[in-house]
């Protein structure tokens, strides 16, 4: 069977294109994809051509082809089996787009531990983002925390924070059905009007103005909102009046492209990803997958409404 990849042909239009693999070099591996995953936030913005020109360079995925807005091959959650190279037979994770097989340097893949199922390992990039966010936030014993936005990233962060002793974690979302997700992750669920204030820090991942406003409202004095939402080309109003100054609040960006400042120089990207993979031995993370689709159905999937949680893509190899 010929190899294929998913491309954004034009904003709002996707297609599968044939791929001719290059001959592997002595330091390369050939990977046959088992699963990839769609991360709604970033990939939806890419699909609809909403990446601002000022961010075209920073938003490039490691193995992206083409340029924003289109045509472009984009994605970064991929798990497969090595068919050729020094890791032959091993299951690996790679920051590669949606493609049936690919050739990359062996240094670009991360081994999936035996205790982590391949279908769960596809979340490694998402959990790595959560690890970096928790490093940024620096939780302390007894902290009161809210995570606003129970999508793929917010839920991942809540799951990681739930492992800290004596921390109160609220997962906040406008959708009451997310209570089941929170229960699976082992954290409390509340709607925005139910959320308790006085938080030491809040992680915001709803990508909405209302979510950011509520995040600031939930902070106690000297509290910090760690902002993980990426808004693309949408302008966002931040409420800096009322209690913002009297409580000495702060909004701080958290982005996975750089190691958190309080770990930089002591941890590298490979170590951070390996830690994320270690955390994925916990089967609670299975709750982050909302649906599955076949690789052949990716153009149809992107043309509809993507779920807020992950969509796992299954590859049929004949």
Give structural notes.
The strands form 4 sheets. Strands 3, 6, 7, 8, 9, 16 and 17 form a 7-stranded mixed sheet that branches. A 6-stranded parallel sheet has the order 12-11-10-13-14-15, with helices on both faces. The longest helix has 14 residues, at 124-137. It has helices at residues 40-47, 118-121, 124-137, 152-161, 179-185, 209-217, 269-279, 298-303; strands at 3-10, 13-19, 28-38, 65-66, 72-73, 78-84, 91-94, 101-105, 109-111, 144-148, 168-172, 188-190, 199-204, 219-227, 250-253, 289-294, 310-314. The radius of gyration is 20 Å and the shape is globular. Helix 3 (124-137) packs across helix 7. By secondary structure, the chain is of the alpha/beta class. It has 8 helices and 17 strands.
**What is the CA-based Rg, rounded?**
20 Å
Largest beta sheet, briefly? Answer: 7 strands, mixed
Structural class, judged by helices and strands? alpha/beta
Instruction: Name the average pLDDT.
Output: 95
What is the number of beta strands? 17
Number of helices: 8
Strand content: 25-35%
Separation of termini? 7 Å
What is the H/E order?
EEEHEEEEEEHHEHEHEEHEEHEHE
* Overall 3D shape: globular
